[in-house]
Every structure is written in structure tokens, then in C-alpha cells.
Write a structure and sequence with these properties.
Blueprint (H helix, E strand, L loop, with lengths): L2 E3 L1 H4 L6 E9 L8 E14 L4 E14 L6 E15 L18 E2 L5 E3 L1 H11 L36 H13 L3
Parallel strand pairs: 5-6
Antiparallel strand pairs: 1-7, 2-3, 3-4, 4-5
The protein binds zinc ion (2 copies).
One zinc ion binds next to loops.
């Protein structure tokens, strides 16, 4: 999945393009990041002078917890990928290519382009830092932990305050008599 054989594309003239649709592909992203929906979208591979340019427009959704009320939420994610992949062996001679670019994305020895890793990376980066179940989520009560979305008019009397906070409140009242 997300792997494409580009041998014939490597033999075609620069500018040649191939399109593939991505339909319900599943992918393990990271131990702490699960996809809630399969990946869908389009991959476009084009022959450039020395490489294959891979572009992809993909949608999926991730699963996580609301940062305010800790409810499980599903967040849709769209990613765009643009990566240049260099051959590792010459398509005509079969000789290894030594172009001094060790960090480049590579086709394998059978001219297979595997987009799994770039897609994994793009989805990890697209993960929102703070997930919310909804914009106006009221979160949990900092004193007793009740979900404030499920109750109305929730409050605690002064006595229930953390004693250290109560001390601080008294001190503040003395300092500002008005
Ligand atoms: Zn929430
Ligand atoms: Zn409370």
C-alpha cells in the first residue's frame, strides 16, 4: 500500500505524469497516534530530469482526547506531500547510483517508491497540539473533576477551596481593602 513501481515512468520523458487514487488505505502511524479513519486521496508521480516528484493530497482522521474534558474525539486531517525521490540504481545499466545525497528519499532496487514513511511523517506533523471536542468545551472542574459540560451552575463554597488558596485569598483581601 502506498508503494508504486515507477520503472516505466523512469523510462519516459521528463514531464510525464501518473495519477493514482488512494482508497481506504490503513497505515500504522505511531504507537501513541492512531488513525480513526482510513486514508483517501490522490497520488501524482511525475518524471523530472533526474528523479520522481511525488505529490499527494490525502485525508484521514486521528483519534485523541479533548485537552479540556478528556473525552475521546476524532479530528479530521488533510495533508499535502511533495517529495523528490531519487533512483538507487540506474534504470538502463542496473548500476548503483552514487550521487552523494544520503538523506534523499530513494526508490528501491526494483524501482519501487514507498510513500509510507513520508505519509506517516506528514500525518504526525498535522496532528493538532490541542484537540478539543468542540470549541466551547467547558472542561473539567479543577476542584472536583466533574465534567462541566454535563452540569449547570456548578460551584463550590469557599470552604471547599484548597486551604492554601484560601490563605492567599485572605491575604489578597487584606492587601487590597477596596
Ligand atoms: Zn471537551
Ligand atoms: Zn467541582
Amino acid at each position: 500500500m502506498l508503494s508504486y513501481n515507477v520503472a516505466s515512468l523512469l523510462r519516459s520523458v521528463p514531464g510525464t505524469e501518473r495519477r493514482y487514487s488512494v482508497d481506504d488505505v490503513t497505515l500504522d502511524i505511531a504507537p501513541d497516534l492512531r488513525l480513526a479513519e482510513p486514508i483517501n486521496g490522490e497520488v501524482r508521480l511525475s518524471r523530472t530530469g533526474r528523479s520522481i516528484l511525488a505529490q499527494a493530497w490525502l485525508s484521514t482522521a486521528i483519534e485523541g482526547y479533548c485537552s479540556r474534558c478528556l473525552k475521546l474525539v476524532v479530528a479530521p486531517i488533510d495533508v499535502k506531500i511533495e517529495e523528490e525521490a531519487l533512483p538507487s540504481i540506474d534504470i538502463d545499466t542496473g548500476q548503483p547510483i552514487n550521487d552523494g545525497e544520503p538523506d534523499a528519499l530513494r526508490l528501491d532496487g526494483h524501482h519501487e517508491l514507498d510513500l509510507g514513511e513520508p505519509v506517516r511523517e506528514a500525518i504526525s506533523l498535522a496532528e493538532p497540539i490541542t484537540l478539543l471536542c468542540r470549541e466551547e468545551c467547558r472542561g473539567l472542574c479543577p476542584t472536583c473533576g466533574v465534567d462541566l459540560n454535563t452540569v449547570t451552575d456548578h460551584s463550590h463554597s469557599e470552604d471547599a477551596l484548597d486551604p492554601r488558596l484560601a490563605e492567599l485569598a485572605k491575604w489578597r483581601d487584606r492587601a487590597e481593602p477596596n
